[in-house]
Amino acid sequence: MRKVVKGVAFLLAALVIIAGALGLAVGPLSERKRHRVVDVAVAPVAYAEGETALTRGKYLFQSRGCAECHGENAAGREVINEPNGFYIKSPNISPGSGSVVKDYKEVDWVRSIRHGVSPQKHALFLMPSADYNRMTNTDVAAVIAYVRALPPATGTGADIRLPLIVQALYVAGEVKDDAELINHSLPPATPVAEGQTPEHGAYVVQMCKGCHGDGLSGGSIPGTPPEWPPAANLTSGTGSAMPKYDSVDKFAGMLRTGKRPDGSAVSTVMPFATLRNLNDTDVGGLYAYLKTVPARPAGQR
Question: What whole-number distance in Å separates Cα of residue 54 and Cα of residue 117?
């Protein structure tokens, strides 16, 4: 018996040592992956000028998540601050002191926005470029024009601190940065007429796929805090959230108030500070498109 106990104790001690060694290795491996060279072919988009570009850029900045992550003044803000050590502060992208984009050229803006890669060719962790990769050149130019025209604000670069488990999942490839997810060879999206149509909705829905998945059936969102609920199924398949919204008005009401038609609150994980800014055309198009999505069971992303 004593030999068995000693053997078990030895095994447990060995496992603790191995776990500790792996823990020490995960941090450097995670940093190495974040700082890997991501060399993609980037076609620059010419700077846009004029009131039309600035108006469109402001709308996109507010309705596609830029303001929610970087702040209305683009100086950067705390995005995640969890007790488990998960901390994300976005960088200053205004023209002010501490800006990370002060030396950006046309090609650098496109590399960061569309491809999730810094001018130094490193992956931009948690930059949701997969949402923006399919933006038209006109819309990309409009966003850039608006950000460059903002009043200078003081800020700093990004501050990213990941729990050990997230770092381990990132190293293992279970959590991916957007530079890994994007098909960098795809050309920019071809513009379609804006309207409350499935065709326009297919363009708008790109902003939803980061959380709800390419198939829009939801499920656990990779790399997010464990207490976050799974994303809802937006298809008509089993476990769909869409039967609650049998009209575009009910759907729009949820996006703008954060409440379902019965008055219950949707999880605040949903980016309502962004979604409430969607105009009627985008909301109508999105709703029309979701009606056409193939049915999939909830959780298959």
Answer: 25
What spatial distance separates the first Cα and last Cα of the chain, rounded to whole Å?
51
Q: How far apart are CA 12 and CA 2, in angstroms?
A: 15
In the DSSP assignment, the letter for residue 164 is: H
Phi first, then psi: give them for residue 180, nearest 5 degrees.
-80, -30
Q: How many CA atoms lie within 13 A of 248 on its CB side?
A: 17
Tokens 């909830």, residue?
Answer: 298
Strand-pairing partners, residue 80, are 88
114-149 tens-digit pLDDT: 999 999 999 998 899 999 999 999 999 999 999 999
CA torsion 79→218→133→85, rounded to 10°? Answer: 30
CA quadruple 216, 288, 59, 68: dihedral sign: negative
- What residue type is assigned to position 204 of the chain? V
User: How many CA atoms, within 13 angstroms, populate the side-chain half-sphere of residue 70?
Assistant: 27
53 exposure class (CB count in 10 Å sphere: 0-12, 13-18, 19+):
buried
pTM of structure: 0.86
